[in-house]
Amino acid sequence: MNREQAGRLLQQHGALMVLGVLVIVGSLAFDSFATPGNAASVVVSSSFLAIIAIGMTFVIISGGIDLSVGSLFVLGGVLAAYGSQYGLAVALLLPLAVCGLVGLLQGLVIARTGMAPFIVTLAGLLGVRGLMLAISDEGATTYLVKDRAFAAVGQGELLGLSYPVHITAALALVAMVLLQRTGFGQNVYAVGGNEQAAALMGVPVARTKILVYVMSGLLAGLAGALNAARLSSGVTILGIGLELDAIAAVVIGGTLLTGGAGGITGTVAGVLLLGVIQSLINQVGSLTSAFQQVVSGVFLALVVVAQRLLSKAQRLT
Amino acid sequence: MAELTSQAQARVVRKQRVFAWVQDYGVYAAVLALLLFNVLFTPHFLDAANFRTQLVQVTPIVIVSLGMALVIGTQGIDLSVGSVMALAAALVVMYLGYGWLPAVIVAVVGGAVVGAVGGALVAYVGVQPIVATLALLVGVRGLANVLVPQLVEFRNPDLIALGSSSVAGIPVIVLIAAALTVIVLFVVRRTTFGRQVVAIGGNRSASELSGLPVKRVLLTVYVISGLLAALAGVLATARLQASDPTSLGLFIELSAITAVVVGGTPLTGGRIRVLSTVMGALLMQLLSATLIKHNLPQSWTQMVQAVIILAAVYATRERR
Q: Where does the sequence pass through the membrane (chain B) (predicted)?
């Protein structure tokens, strides 16, 4: 294996390796870390962020960014809780329809007007939060989940893990296949790599971009709905800053913000890494959650610096 | 036939002129229109007290936006400003025992150091601005909370005076913001550094080739942004008479970016509009105040803001 291959391997699977090291260190240092109960709680609490980050991975590989996912997560939760009074189907379909539509609108504006994704989805962040406040009486009304079947989607367990974990795993698999084995996946990489070249090669640039934002909206809405089912209510104050967590997880996972490269495995590893850091800090006990933010920030900085140095080394060889 | 073409051309030229006008003066026109609306239809709008409240509330956003405009001018972005405000709030109460001025200096230096870290990552390591400052957003907010875990009230009369006293009826905070605006305007229009900032944002590789100190200028821009954000944090803390690192400056990066963009500074860099940025901040403040005064709820304010951002960016985007 030469230096270039080593660099690429590190960039793509660095998060996974660090995750492995942290898990080993944590298991040696704390008796209560490597227990099935703790592992399950890390995985469950990571699953909602993972679903959002999967959508974000597609967006970032295509060269874009989606700041609206935090707001869509909350909106999805409120809509699901509201819809649950009409049964399971409405509880699931209502948030998917609305959040998918928001994604579609954002994608259309980005693809057709050439406006920066950062600004369009920033407007989305504000507008969707406004919409969420409007349907929850300015955040005063909390809709409770009355439908048993819908609550079970968030709370039921299979093989010791709750359903959201299985759903997340299934979504990650589907996303991996979509990205690696289909023409759509190739188009996403092509658009993010070099938009003009992709257009010249006949890649449907606009359609690919629009689809990516629709996916991101759908997944954020789904994550919100699952979270509402788990908590039995559509909480209006959650999800603030979630877009930044998702972007951080994707970047830590080795996907480049410049687009054109990256993958789902890295993103899932990135999400788990953030979850494990939080769990380790909980184990120490005396450290507050504020400390977790410091560690996450330092970690993100280290990862991007390492990424940058590795890609420089690759270009030199 | 020739007449037809010239008519079509005239139409195109007229359309371009309209766009150029909107790009240059749209935000002023919007602020004026909103002011006029309020004078006519909002009771007590012209009361001095109301006016002062509006100005004082928008001051931190204006100060942060000035730094953000410089950063965006270099084709960068600074997401860390809200967290820097929180860090400044934490530092100022930690060092208040040594007197208000040393405490303020420590806080502002702290902000400049955070800016230098972000600037070094961007300029010397080559990390993308959005990721470098995202790491700082997360980490620095945590640091501020570790230093000062809960809201702390203080009784230092000098710091309280900084936040609440007035000169000739104008709050000191507002005067400071106005002075900073003039300084930044001067730097952008009249100094070599200002020209270098704009040149780097316009075309980085050309700037490098023509021998501009690109890395040093980039670093300086982020240091200035951190410094201004810290100052905004200190002033906001002085006004609140309490240090609140948990929630001070939350989401202000988004408000500042909005102010800059609504003011017509393109995210693609190469152009900085200082006064329009201040107008952008005033416009968003005035808008939410107007909607609230007319009993429209918060939810509407945010949705209207979203539409205004999109409209402003659409109107001012680069013509292709």
A: 21-41, 53-72, 79-98, 104-123, 130-148, 168-188, 217-236, 248-267
Report pLDDT for A317. Answer: 47
| Residue B141 to residue A293, Cβ atoms within 8 A | yes
Where do the structural domains in chain B lie, given as residue ranges?
Answer: 60-318
What residues does each domain of chain A span? Answer: 46-268+290-302
Instruction: Provide the shortest C-alpha distance from residue A278 to chain B (in Å).
Output: 13
**Which residues of chain B form beta strands (DSSP E)?**
152-153, 166-167, 170-171, 242-243
Distance CA A313, CA A308 (A): 9
Are the beta carbons of A150 and A92 closer than 8 angstroms?
A: yes
Residue of B143, B310, B319 to mutate, testing the A interface (most A Cβ within 10 Å of its Cβ): B310
Predicted confidence (pLDDT) per residue in A243-294, tens digit: 888 998 898 888 877 777 888 888 998 899 888 888 888 777 666 778 878 8
CATH for the stretch B60-318: 1.10.3470
- Distance separating alpha carbons of residues B16 and B23, to the nearest angstrom: 10
| Torsion (CA) B203, B207, B208, B210 in degrees, nearest 10 | 140
Q: What does the pLDDT look like over A214-241, one tens digit per residue?
A: 999 999 999 999 998 888 777 777 667 7
Residue of B nearest to A120 (CA): B310
Q: So what's the pLDDT on residue B94?
A: 92
What is the C-alpha to C-alpha distance for residues B63 and B225, in angstroms, rounded to an integer? 9
Question: Are residues B316 and B264 in contact, defined by beta-carbon separation less than 8 angstroms?
Answer: yes
CB contact under 8 A, A290 and B140: no
Closest CB to B131 among A132, A292, A304: A304
B252-279 confidence digits (pLDDT tens):
888 899 899 888 888 888 889 999 999 9
